[in-house]
Amino acid sequence: MQAVFDGHNDVLLRLWTHMREGSDPIAEFAEGTAAGHIDGPRARAGGLAGGLCAIYVPSGDLVFADPDFRGHYATPLAAPLERSPSLDIALEMAAIALRLDRAGAWRLCRSTRDIRRAMDSGIFAAVMHIEGCEAIDPDLAALETFHAAGLRSLGPVWSRNNVFGHGVPFAYPMTPDTGPGLTEAGFALVRECNRLGILIDLAHITEKGFWDVAKTTDQPLVASHSNAHALTPVARNLTDRQLDAIRESNGLVGVNYATAMLRADGRSDAATPLEDMIRHIDYLVERIGIDHVALGSDFDGATIPEEIGDAAGNQKLIAALKSVGYGDADLTKLARENWLRILASAWRENVAGAA
Ligand SMILES: [Zn+2]
Fold this sequence. Notes:
By secondary structure, the protein is of the alpha/beta class. The chain has a single domain (4-346), classed as TIM Barrel, CATH 3.20.20. The chain is 38% helix and 12% strand. The chain is built from twelve helices and eleven strands. Strands 1, 2, 4, 5, 6 and 8 form a six-stranded parallel beta sheet that branches. Helix 10 (274-288) links the parallel strand 10 (252-255) and strand 11 (293-295). The model has no long low-confidence stretch (mean pLDDT 97). Bound molecules: zinc ion. Zinc ion binds next to loops.
């Protein structure tokens, strides 16, 4: 079995949603559930050894637009969120992450050493990520606090606008060049993340925002859960120019299992064959090289191919890649080592004198 460290999941959102309905998030994760995609037993069954676990404040009013007869759709951006309730929700999700760690249900990892130790001992290696910084104030006091609580990765924006920048809408076909990029506060956020050792994730940001981060950050460029725009022209996917910049920065793309971002017709449909995933992975590997492609499933956040189903089916993708000729060395990079290289860099583990 090829242990997978995955760049994006929404299990904290699911656990938080169920907690509000009265269920115990620790039992749900540790003992397992039929709901959603990830829990401890299913992760172990599918060799999902760990991943970036998003704190995401939901846009309750977001309604996805129906596709027209050609399959085209354009969902308007979700409305901006107020900071105060967003902060409450983010704190509740961070608390779930910390309580899962305290209960021994997963390990909340702050270094790649933590991740490797957790993987070696068969415990899920979770990394705290924030997807859209509505909970963070422009003075970055909350950033400092979340970092102390274990935050090691963030995307400045989700698919909506906030004080730090502008997100791309869910739309097909659509360029990712849909609006402005970072604000002044967004540039300051990137610089502070570089200083603290927090990974910057470019998923969900406009193309302009992508270039704003590229010219500001001192780190490799990373899109944790995005695919190739040339194959599936949704605004959330990356153009060839963006992919080339990721390669040149020694960065990484985590392949998203979301069927709407994999299929040529842009539809969200669980009856999507693994061939569509392999098509994107082949394209990315061809364009930017095996060292720059990894996985970013979006488990618990998207409609994924039914052949995979949930975390327990994760090895089916690995087996499919093997069957089309990917060797063990390449699969090891794709499954985990590329992510570990990027995290070690973002977390400044290779800098002399760093902790
Ligand atoms: Zn996302």
